[in-house]
Structures are given as C-alpha cells and as structure tokens.
Design goal:
single chain; NUDIX_hydrolase_dom; five-stranded mixed beta sheet; Nucleoside Triphosphate Pyrophosphohydrolase; hydrolase activity; about 160 residues; alpha/beta
C-alpha cells in the first residue's frame, strides 16, 4: 500500500488533481429523423453542434450558446440524453466529459448560419450516414442519445480516445 502524498496547502493539493475538459452538444433532428451535423475544417470527422463549456456557464447553457453561435438558431436545451467520458489520449492530455442535450426537431429547410472560419458545412444526415461521418466517439454519443430519446433514460458511456 502506498502512502498518500502530503501537501503543504490546499492550493498545492488542488494543483495536483487531474483536470477534465467539459463540452456540450446538441442532438437536433428534422421531421424525417435525419440528424443535423456540422463540419469544422480542422477536424477529420463531422460533429454535433456544440463546443466547450465556458467559465461561469453550465453544460445546458453551453449547448444553447453553441446552437446560436454555430447555426444562428435559438433554442432551449431539453433533456440530457447522454454523458460521454473520454480518457486522455493523443488528442487530449486530460479526460473529457461531453454532455449531449435534446434540442428537438426542426424543419430541414430552417436557415442555418454557420460562423465563418469555424465551420465549413452542415448537413442533415440519416442515422446510418451520421454514425459513419461522426467517427467512433461521437457515433457512440449519437446511439446513446437516440436510445435516451426513445425511452427517456439518460445514458452514460465511455468513448474511445478521440477527444471531443
């Protein structure tokens, strides 16, 4: 049994703790069940509308802010569908916790205003196509989010090492 390290101050103890990145995303579908996803030029895979939680905001507020910033749409985040934990890896040096909220169903012809320089494209993808385009970590979140939408039970999943 190893002995616990001794710390001289609370600040020293806090500095020794692991950090966790926090992010929130939006599950948005159209009436046909297609999923709204967006593409950033700096990432290999497509992603949910969403982003990292800012200082002094909670994950729900983050999802609503990111919805506005990344699409120009205004909406209230509904149920928390999934919480995904990602271990540190090559992309991120700390674990990440991603919250996926239900942002409901909107018509596919709703005007989407992407932020220049941040996102290159958006699309409404069928579930199978979205699972492929999102990559492993986000596909796991989509599967969990759709299951939670169907039965009302939030899912907690552990994603492969692929960051946000």
């Amino acid at each position: 049994m190893t002995e616990a390290p001794e710390f001289k101050s609370r600040e020293e103890w806090l500095a020794s703790l692991h950090r966790v990145y926090a992010a929130a995303g939006c599950l948005i579908t159209d009436p046909e069940g297609r999923v709204l996803i967006v593409k950033a030029g700096y990432r290999e895979h497509w992603q949910f509308v969403g982003g990292t939680v800012d200082l002094n905001e909670n994950p729900r507020q983050c999802a609503e802010r990111e919805l506005l910033e990344e699409t120009g749409l205004v909406g209230a985040a509904g149920d928390l569908l999934a919480v995904a934990w990602t271990h540190p890896g090559e992309e991120l040096d700390h674990p990440a916790c991603h919250f996926l909220f239900d942002l409901g169903t909107i018509p596919a012809d709703s005007p989407i205003a992407l932020p220049a320089g941040e996102l290159d494209a958006h699309r409404w993808a069928g579930v199978d196509e979205a699972l492929e385009l999102l990559g492993p970590a986000r596909a796991l979140r989509l599967t969990a989010g759709l299951a939670a939408r169907a039965d009302g039970r939030t899912r907690i999943v552990t994603a492969p090492n692929s960051g946000f």
